Every structure is written in C-alpha cells, then in structure tokens.
Predict the structure.
Amino acid sequence: MRRTSQIAFFAFFLLIPYLNILRYDSYGHQLFLFGMPWHLSISLKTISSNPNVSSLIIAREFFLKAILPWLGVLAFFPVMGLFFGRFFCGWLCPEGLLFEFADWLTLRVLGRRSIYRRRSTDPEVNNRRRWPYVVLAIFFYALFPPVIGILLSGFFIPPEKILEYIKTGSFSFGLKSAAVGVTIYLIITSVFVRHQFCKYVCAAGLMQMLFGWFRRGSLRVAFLRQQSDRCTDCRACERVCFMDVKPRSPKKNINCVNCGECIIACRKELGMQGGLFHFKFGKDLKTENDSTIPDTGKVKAV
C-alpha cells in the first residue's frame, strides 16, 4: 500500500503541468492555476494610467493574490508535521521513493544498502546473480533521469511545446538543460547521498520533523514496552529501517518517517501473537518514556 501511494503521488506530481493544475509559462510569462491565468486584478497599465487607484486597493490585491497563496503553500509541510509527523516523507515523497529504489538496487548488487560500507542492520540477501541488477541499474540511470527532467520542464515550458519538441526530435536549449540538470541531480542524490539528504538537507522534511517533534499529538510509530517480553530480539525492525532508526529505543528519533516498515516486520516475526509496533497519535508517558528501559534500542530476548 505504501509503495502504491508513493508511485501514485510521483505520477501525479509529474502530470501536474500536463493536467493544467499548476504551471508557469516562461514563454508568455504567465502563471496558470487549474487552467486559468493567475494574476493581480489590477494591472500595471491600469495603475500607471489611473492615478485615482488607491494604494490600499493595490496592497490588498497583492496580499490576497500573491502573499496569502504563497503563505498557504509554505504552511503545507508544517501543518503536515503538526498532525502526521514525517508521514509525507515515508508515504508520498518522490525523492524518498527513488532513494529506496537505489537502496534496493545496491543491496542486490553489492549485498548492502550503502555503496560505501556494510552496516550491521543491512538485510541479508543472496546476491550471487547480481548482473541482471547491474544491467537494470545502468538502464535505469541512463534513461529515467532524463525522462523525468523532460517531464518536469512542463512546469515552465508549455506542454504542447514539449510534445512538439519530442515529435520533431529537436529539443530547445531549455529542455536540454532540464534533462541534463535533473539527470546530474538525481544521480548525485540517489547514488551518493540518498537518505542523508532527507536527514540533513531537505527543507520539507526539516519542517515536518520540527513541527512533529514539538507537538505531542502528532502521528508516530509506538513500541508496546509493556509487552517487551514478547520481543525475540530478531532486529528485523532495525533491518527494514532505511533511515537507520532504532525503533525500540525509548527516545523518539526525529528521523523516523512513519513508513511503518517496522510494524510489518514485527508482525511477520511474531505471527499470530501480533506485532509490538503500531501507529499512534501522541505518546503514552507510561510506555514511551519508561526510564527503566535502556537507551540502546535493544530488548532482552525471551
């Protein structure tokens, strides 16, 4: 379900300019929102030709048509963080999907998630037949980033122009720049940086992280410490965590993206008994901040 939501949102994001939901026409210097041109009600020509236009009216129009919508856009991720923590990062983020795919490819090729070194929490895989994945990786990074760059250029180049360029095979300088720029960016981030970008660079993730951290009632993954004696210490919850979070630690890790992979892994391990992780809004001080639980993320095996 999570993978479906990631792919669906990625597809929707790429199609936004082609569905005429939001795009900026760099040729006509015009912003379009839901197919309609978005501009101030009073044009500069009207202002210059009519000295009776009140400065208060101009300020009001500018606030309603420019500042207020932009504040609404900026408020999206803080509001998401207040209620759902880093849910967007784990369930919708297009870059997060690419980083996880890069982890999967590297795991099949090198036997570890990172290209730099193996971690104790890396899943065990049989990578004897690695060449099909090497070929897949080469084709993916040779074809996918340029296509994404061309599609993303629809936010600034009219979609009909892009289709015309594709049909004729004669790309404009802007289209070529978008394809090359996005290709370089995606290769650097998804091959060499990956989830370190999510932890230390991404502004959207940072806003969700901060607002989700300060609000006690935001969505998070909770560990049932009162039932910790059922834990087998299999560490499956740690192995599936691509953000290198220790899900059993009594301290909430701000890097958790609420993906729920630890919930699934624990349920597989414990079977009919039911897992020890669950989604929860807020936290129970009696179970989440128990000072008797060591801050190591380890639980004594039964």
